Amino acid sequence: MSGRQRRLTALVSGLATAAILLLFANAGDVILESFGITVEAFQVLGGLVVLLIALDMLGLLGVGTVSYGGGSDEPNPLLTEVFPMAVPLFTGPGAITAVMIYSIQGDGNPWHDLHVSIVVLVISAAVAAGFLLASTLSRVIGLVTQQVLNRLLGVIVGAMGIEFILDGIAGFYALPTASH
Hints:
By secondary structure, the protein is mostly helical. The chain has one domain (3-172). The chain has five helices and no strands.
């Protein structure tokens, strides 16, 4: 991507991430209820998605990079910036579940809701900043270091996925969880 395209991708991905997470932080329980989906089922799905991402990071799936451009030489910016960047990478079931759970824990307290919204906005800004700094950081740390870090982070992300699954199952059966 050119410098301009990277900046646009960073901006749109960050804004889309913020909008989606704020929507689910404020109305996620209503959205899930309208489809008859429990938060616990969404947690298990989030855990499975995160686990699959981790397995790919560890090189165990062999999927590689998937193209979302629809076969044309010129990628559609919305397909790149919103899908797959904002959804499902940054606002997949795991992130959506997390903001919903934190929002529900506030029990309607406006200060808690404001706190969750501020955290979502800060994280979304960090996502955009990360995109802007990615090529520079990539050159500084080198390819081998990137691959080692990717594998190490894959283990951590995999454990997070398993934790989401276990918490979802425990919540469904009203069992105590390891993280509480």
